[in-house]
Amino acid sequence: MLDALRSPQSVLVLGASSDIAQATVAALARRGRLDRVVLAGRPGPRRDAAVQKATSEVGRRGVVRALDFDATRPDEHEAVVAEAFADGDVDVVLLAFGVLPDAATAAAPDAAAAVVTTNFTGAVSALTASAARLRAQGHGTMVVLSSVAGERPRRSNYLYGATKAGLDAFATGLGDDLAGTGVEVVVVRPGFVRTSMTAGLGPAPLSVDASDVAEAVVAAVGGGTRTVWVPGALRLVMSVLRHLPRAVFRRLPI
Ligand SMILES: NC(=O)c1ccc[n+]([C@@H]2O[C@H](COP(=O)([O-])OP(=O)(O)OC[C@H]3O[C@@H](n4cnc5c(N)ncnc54)[C@H](OP(=O)(O)O)[C@@H]3O)[C@@H](O)[C@H]2O)c1
Questions:
Q1: Mean pLDDT in residue range 242-246
Q2: C-alpha of 80 from chain center
Q3: Is 109 part of any domain?
Q4: What's the gap in Å between 2 CA and the centre of ligand 1?
Q5: CATH number of the domain bearing residue 110
Q6: Does residue 17's CB lie within 6 angstroms of at least one atom of ligand 1?
Q7: CA of 248 to the centre of ligand 1 (A)
Q8: I want to staple 38 with a disulfide (CB 3.0 to 4.6 A). Which of 44, 84, 136, 137 is the partner?
Q9: How far is the CA of 151 from the centre of ligand 1 (A)?
């Protein structure tokens, strides 16, 4: 449970090796109360490195555990989440997995559908399983990494944008359904974040680092904010872009 300073003691990360997730675990650990970290993700060197990093951040008082989790296996999600809650309450569930398809992937039917399975279908099942556990324990925060890309899908990024629009709508509705249960859903809409996902892409306006998203997440947990834009200026930018006529919007170099 959050203490008087709203500092979580336990976190489950779905998408263990995500750069944003790793920065968020580090930011939560700096608050000083984090003593249980469950890192659910695909096994491999990136997850191993995340476990090592989190272990050094929580220090001697903490326990870090890795669980195998594949977003494309919704049939396994209930069991993985149950395992994560087996050692006690979980204060924060951070949904941080996702893939950013290139144009060739978006043009190939099988590959395009696989992106939807990871970013949307897998997120729906993982969030549904997590919501049931949090509802049963009567408290907790689900932090969902959506994207500004879902606010109005761009022609250069429409597949990713569509998956994030679906995820954003699902998480927002789930949050409303959970109102009054003690469980909160925080939907985070970052713009361009300099991480492994965007490595090699050209710089974008209003770019931020993973640590900026992490600080925004930490500020939102237990703080009553349900929608977080990173950077905050994107909220205003998108409220303008959202209302542009389509013929104008699709010509923008974004
Ligand atoms: N970077 C940005 O500009 C940006 C902006 C807005 C929103 N976001 C969102 O923020 C989240 C984190 O992204 P990031 O920037 O931290 O990128 P990242 O470092 O590339 O992290 C992506 C994560 O997704 C995991 N993943 C991919 N497919 C998976 C699967 N089938 N099963 C389980 N895990 C899987 C990866 O695990 P593996 O190590 O196993 O591949 C990795 O942990 C994503 O949802 C992303 O869409 C990112």
A1: 92
A2: 17
A3: yes
A4: 26
A5: 3.40.50.720
A6: yes
A7: 31
A8: 84
A9: 18
Could you tell me the pTM of the whole model? 0.97
Has residue 5 got a pLDDT over 70? Answer: no
Q: Which domain holds residue 40?
A: 10-249
* Residue that the structure tokens 């361009």 belong to: 192
158 is catalytic: no
Structure tokens at 124: 């729906």
pLDDT for 3 beyond 80: no
> How many CA atoms does the CB half-sphere of 170 hold within 13 Å?
23
Question: How far, in whole angstroms, is CA 221 from its chain's centroid?
Answer: 13
Is 243 within the bounds of a domain? yes
Average pLDDT over residues 211-224: 94
From 69, 85, 97, 160, the catalytic residue:
160
Predicted confidence band at 204 (pLDDT cuts at 50, 70, 90)? confident
User: How many domains are there within the chain?
Assistant: 1
At residue 199's C-alpha, the angle toward residues 64 and 48, to 5°, is 20
Cα–Cα distance list, 75 to 59, 72, 129, 139, 226 (Å): 34, 9, 11, 25, 29
Report if residue 5 sits inside a domain: no
Nearest Cα residue to 228 out of 212, 252, 244, 246? 212
The tens digit of pLDDT for each residue in 141-185 reads 999 999 999 999 999 999 999 999 999 999 999 999 999 999 999
* The ligand 1 atom nearest the CA atom of 21: 16
pLDDT of residue 6: 73
Token pair of 110 as six digits: 């099988």
